[in-house]
Structure formats: structure tokens, C-alpha cells
Amino acid sequence: MLFLDVQGTLLSDVDKSPILGAKELISFLNSKNLAYLIITNNTKKLNFLEELRNKGLEIKQNAYLDPFCVFNRTLKPCKVAAYGSKEFLECIEELGYTLDYTSPDAVLVASYDDFKFKDFAAMIEFAQNDVKMIAMHETSIYKKDHRLYPGVGSIMAMIQNASHCEYEVVGKPSFAFYKQALALIREQKSDLEFKDITIISDDFKGDLLRAKELGMKCVLVLSGKISHTKGLDTSILDGVFKSILEFAKEFECKI
To answer: What is the CATH number of the domain that holds 127?
Structure first.
């Protein structure tokens, strides 16, 4: 029973194409009717599942979860000051939220590689005025153009340090997101618990640390933002693989 990350695990950070072995693993899981769930911190496309399928990943309809799938459980449509990519802002509006940078009911923060310090200043001011602060996920870093950028988790840590605010997290690695992921995979196999799940990801801090706390088995792939285990507490890991291809070969031999 698997939780599968997307970026850096199933898709290449370089060109967003499927990493060798990704299509084959999904097809194998489908053919054996094994329970799995794609868990991603996508915040740019409301139809990301369809895009993944168009790339040749034959993901089942009930085997996908991202922050947009659960967002309205955290915040009902209202006025928001949203910070992130143009695509993120468009998604938020499509979901029924109104962009308001004067008197918002909440502040939303998503990944973006073009933040300006005036954006951070505005976030700090809203936080100091007790506006609800929401991180769409809590990834510490992400990779783009062969470079590492600070993720939402790092940005929120900065805002929290400057304003002493508290904030909620919608996507990974929040307990609420993993709890919903467990509920969703139980639709495929009803008796599953966290201890029965193996999570595969390229994000040691943003995905695997919290997953281990919940009792999941954790597998790190070195095909994304992390290319080695130097400096990591590998004692929490149940496996390290160069890519999903190597994991898939070992996994299929055990089935």
C-alpha cells in the first residue's frame, strides 16, 4: 500500500516528464489491484490529475489528493490575500475566493520563485493584525532550473519569526492532509492504518519526517531535490533508491 509523491518522484524536476519507471509502477499497481494514492502539493492546476494522465500515468480516479481537494475544509470561500504564482491565484478565484489585499479574512501562501520583500512585508503586517495565516503546504525547498528555492515552509518560518504568528497547513506534511489521504486509500482497502503505508518521496523534511511520526514506512528517492543522504538522519528511512525505477524493481519482486 503506497503513498506516492509526484514532483521529483514520478515527474522530473527538469522537464516535468515521467521519470523512468513511473508509468510502469502505476500500471503494475493497477494490474494487481493494489491500493495506492498519489499525494502531491500541487497548487497550480485544478485539473492536475488529468495532466498526469495525459503524461501516461494511468492513475485511478479515486487515487489522487492535493491541497485543492481539501482546501474548503480549512477555509470556506471568503476574501483572501493570496501569494503565489499567477496560476495559483487563478485557481483560488475559480474556487470561489475573492482576492483582497486590503482587508482579507485570510492570507494564503503557495510556492513562488518571484516573491519580493514587499510581499513578505505585507504578510508580516497581516499576521501582526491577527489575520488568519494559511500555508498551502509546508515544503522546505523545491527545485527549478537546477536550483533550489525556499519552499512555503521556509517562508512561513520566516514570517513566524518576524511576527510570532501561528499558521495552518493545508497540504503535506500536515496531519489533516495525511489523515484525509488515509481515509481516501481506505476506499480501496478498508482496514488500512498508517503502519500499513509506505510513502515514497524525494522530500525528506517536507514529506517523510512527519510520515514517520505517524508510523508510515518511509522511502527516499534521490531523483528530485535531494541527490544524496549526507546530513540526513537516515535512521528514519526504510529504503533509499536512486529513482522510482529501482524501487519499482524491488517492490514488484516482493509481490
So the answer is: 3.40.50.1000
Distance CA 199, CA 225 (A): 16
Q: What pLDDT shows up at residue 61?
A: 86
**DSSP run (H or E) holding 36:** strand 36-39
> Model-level pTM greater than 0.70?
yes
In eight-state DSSP terms, residue 7 is B
* Alpha carbons 252 and 99: distance in angstroms, whole number: 47
Give the cell for residue 187.
476506499
Q: Is residue 71 part of a domain?
A: no
The number of domains in the chain is 2
Parent domain of 230: 2-66+172-254
Q: Which of 138, 169, 200 is the last residue of a domain?
A: 169
44/120 Cα distance (integer angstroms) = 20
Of the candidates 67, 28, 30, 47, the one whose C-alpha atom is nearest the C-alpha of residue 245 is 28
Residue 216 forms part of a structural domain: yes
Q: What is the mean pLDDT of each run of 10 residues along the chain (255 residues)?
A: 97 94 97 97 96 97 96 96 98 98 98 96 98 96 88 96 96 96 96 97 94 97 92 94 96 86
Cβ contact 212:16 at 8 Å: no
